[in-house]
Design goal:
Layout lengths: L1 H21 L5 H5 L2 H21 L2 H24 L5 H14 L2 H4 L7 H18 L16 H13 L11 H20 L2 H21 L4 H26 L8 H13 L1
Amino acid sequence: MVRTSRIHEEMDGLLSIMERLREPGGCPWDREQTLESLRTFILEEAYELVDSIERGDPDAICEESGDLLLQVVFVAQVCMEKGLFDLADSIRGLNEKLVRRHPHVFGGERLETGSAVSRNWDLIKQGERRVKREDPSLFAGIPPGLPALVKSRQIQERAAKVGFDWEEGDIGPIVDKIHEELWELNEAITSRDREHIEEEMGDVFFALANLSRHLKVEPEFSLQRANRKFESRLRFMENRVERSGRPWSDYTLDELEALWDDAKGE
């Protein structure tokens, strides 16, 4: 109960600060923001929170969680000013949705596995869409602006939930599919048809995302990790090149590969 009281106190303080920032005489920058301008900051804060989680830094996770919460409160404040809804409406809707989509917890259903819960969640969502006369498709609700690898995984997961998927636990056919797509990409490269190359390159990425999903690896995080690794090693090489006093253009490819091997060793 003490914890709940503290949360209420801090949330009331946050809402008061946001109202003060947005009211006449408040912060000019905060007053200029719109729902459209906030989109960039929402994405940035979400990625910064993910990065802090990947680094395992509790202090950063705490701070970035607050920064992401700020964006939610900011959106709610702008919408309240427009007479659309306030934060209480968002929280109430979320509470109702969580109860409605967990009948195995708050109702009489019995679901024993996470995959069964996930399938039931999607069925409930489809039912809600039909009631609202919205698109009931399996793929409805996937944001078009998602990063491509994340979107590939979501598309594949939804197809898998209706049985359109490779056999669980057997990645052989998926690996074969990747080789097939690479062969088709090579054929496209030979043809020098750029549109065909782009299409086949996409098929390779899609097949790799499918393999990642079956291996329970998030493709977006995996690629981000590869990006960080490459950048770290190249920074090591930059430091060596700078200390040598020689320009990059003076290095042969063999010398650069030797520096790369040193970076890998580090």
